[in-house]
């Protein structure tokens, strides 16, 4: 599968952050699976990390998730942010979500230890809307998407610290997605060593859910 055979790779200025099994997959998901490298400055990444660290430190890493999707993680839902962090999240909203989309009021924060990983899963329509957008902090990682009906069709995203990834529509529901464990963390022939990784994930409101209702319980979405 990924990492072997002839691969199609999107041509981008400088290093590429998206690679896939064929040009058709890259074309199909061009706007549905997006990576924005360098979305955060170093100072902005440090701002978010400093704000999250005290709350995360009070929690223990877990190894049994409610839907068995995550291993070696801490997580929380956060709705109150400092002014500086709130400005960052507003930028995420402006870039990733359409004017007609309403966001869940709480932001999902997922802390994976260096040995942690997220197993392949498809997000539930009950808990997340059509779009999710995640900021990656601390460590690079590789996200792999695999078509649920055609496993030979796949896409990989290189998520460097400070990057923003966006998953929409088909990338959410027709493809599973996962964060590779350290021993499998390759982007093509390039090894991407995993360390501790924090993701800050904004989500659109599920269809039919009112703004005052709660969304997904903390999870891999």
Automatic annotation (TrEMBL):
GO cellular component: mitochondrial matrix
Protein's UniProt name: Alpha-ketoglutarate-dependent dioxygenase alkB homolog 7, mitochondrial
Subcellular localization(s) per the UniProt record: Mitochondrion matrix
Broad class of the protein's primary localization: mitochondrion
GO molecular function: dioxygenase activity; metal ion binding
Pfam family membership, one: 2OG-FeII_Oxy_2
Function: May function as protein hydroxylase; can catalyze auto-hydroxylation at Leu-110 (in vitro), but this activity may be due to the absence of the true substrate. Required to induce programmed necrosis in response to DNA damage caused by cytotoxic alkylating agents. Acts by triggering the collapse of mitochondrial membrane potential and loss of mitochondrial function that leads to energy depletion and cell death. ALKBH7-mediated necrosis is probably required to prevent the accumulation of cells with DNA damage. Does not display DNA demethylase activity. Involved in fatty acid metabolism.
UniProt family annotation: Belongs to the alkB family.
Lineage, uppermost ranks: Eukaryota, Metazoa, Chordata, Craniata, Vertebrata
Ranges of residues in domain Alpha-ketoglutarate-dependent dioxygenase AlkB-like: 75-203
Keyword entries, A-Z: Dioxygenase, Iron, Metal-binding, Mitochondrion, Necrosis, Oxidoreductase, Transit peptide
Biological processes, Gene Ontology terms: DNA damage response; fatty acid metabolic process; programmed cell death
Cofactor: Fe(2+)
Organism of this sequence: Callithrix jacchus
């Amino acid at each position: 599968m990924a990492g072997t055979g002839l691969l199609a790779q999107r041509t981008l200025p400088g290093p590429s952050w998206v690679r896939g099994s064929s040009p058709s997959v890259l074309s199909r998901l061009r706007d549905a699976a997006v990576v924005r490298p360098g979305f955060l400055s170093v100072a902005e990444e440090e701002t978010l990390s400093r704000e999250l660290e005290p709350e995360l430190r009070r929690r223990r890493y877990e190894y049994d998730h409610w839907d068995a999707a995550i291993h070696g993680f801490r997580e929380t839902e956060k709705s109150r942010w400092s002014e500086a962090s709130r400005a960052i999240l507003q930028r995420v909203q402006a870039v990733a979500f359409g004017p007609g989309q309403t966001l869940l009021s709480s932001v999902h924060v997922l802390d994976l230890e260096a040995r942690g990983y997220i197993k392949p899963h498809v997000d539930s329509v009950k808990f997340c809307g059509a779009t999710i957008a995640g900021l990656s902090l601390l460590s690079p990682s590789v996200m792999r998407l695999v078509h649920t009906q055609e496993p030979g069709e796949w896409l990989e995203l290189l998520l460097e610290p400070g990057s923003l990834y966006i998953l929409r529509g088909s990338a959410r529901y027709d493809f599973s997605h996962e964060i590779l464990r350290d021993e499998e963390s390759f982007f093509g022939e390039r090894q991407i060593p995993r360390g501790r990784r924090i993701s800050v994930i904004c989500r659109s409101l599920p269809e039919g859910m009112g703004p005052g209702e709660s969304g997904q319980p903390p999870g891999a979405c």
